[in-house]
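Subgroup meeting minutes
Present: P.N., E.W., G.H.
Scribe: E.W.

1. P.N. recapped why we're keeping a running log of single-chain structure predictions: easier to compare across weeks, and new members can see raw inputs and outputs side by side.
2. G.H. added today's entry (95 aa).
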Amino acid sequence: MVLIRGILEMLQLADDNGPKSFNDFTKIMIKNRRLSSATVSKRLSELITAKALEEVITKSKSGRRVIAYKTTEKGRKVVEHARLLQEALAFSKNK
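Output recorded in log:
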């Protein structure tokens, strides 16, 4: 099974301790490499279109618009299914 680079990691991050900013996603490390800004931008667009992430728009003290992202219920289901699949694969290896 091949997952698109960064999808699962972004969904997991956006579900931990409140909404996450674009810059938070660029700190994700996969195989000792950070996700590029271009990859993060593309994945955010894909995840929002799929309704797995949603934007949370607020205003800063200076009145500037601040956009963050959080995992939706649909996104949490994807993460849970991936976890269950990992467990099943690990179990089958140990047989």
